[in-house]
Each structure stands twice: as structure tokens, then as C-alpha cells.
Amino acid sequence: MQSTTPTFKSFKAFYPYYLKEHRNVTCRRLHFIGSTLVLAVSAIALIKQQYSLLWLLPVIGYGFAWVGHFFFEKNRPATFKHPFYSLWGDWVMFKDILIGKIKF
């Protein structure tokens, strides 16, 4: 696993690094599944007004992502050093997968 992470002054500078850390298609798929489930659970919690379900969001989102990193990508998630950029990157990559810009 990598031990050093560069610093970034903008998300625009961070995103190419983020994509480099997500080369493995299985890792990207796990991120996408986790993000999709986060959206689904959020919708269910809001529609049914079962707000206690919201505690599942970080477990689902990070759980799928971290399995992808530790077992398939074999690197340390950027979340540990760049939590906000990493979360932003998750959703930009999700969008990029949806529109076909990134292979799924």
C-alpha cells in the first residue's frame, strides 16, 4: 500500500490523482455500487421518513469503496488524507461512469 499522498490546492488538480487511484475496474464498480446504494437508502429514508436509516450511509458508501481499495486496487483510500476532495471525487467519478466517460 502507498504511504505518501501529494497535496493539492484545488479539486481540478486532485481529480487526475483520484482517477489514478481508481484504475482497477472492480474498485470503480464497488464505488459505483456503494454510491448507488447511498442514493437509494437516502431516498427511502426521506420518503418513508425513517431517518434512522441515514446512519447507514457512511457504512455503505465507505464500505464498498474500501473493499475496492484494500482488496482490488491495493492502495490506501484518498479519504484518509483528502476527505473532502475524495468525497467530491466519488460523485464526479459516479457521474463520469453514468455518462460513459469512465469504463464500468
From TrEMBL:
Keywords for the protein's UniProt record, in alphabetical order: Membrane, Transmembrane, Transmembrane helix
InterPro entries: Mpo1-like
Superkingdom classification of source: Bacteria
Transmembrane segments annotated in the record for this chain: 30-47, 53-72
Coiled-coil region(s): none
The name this protein goes by in its record: DUF962 domain-containing protein
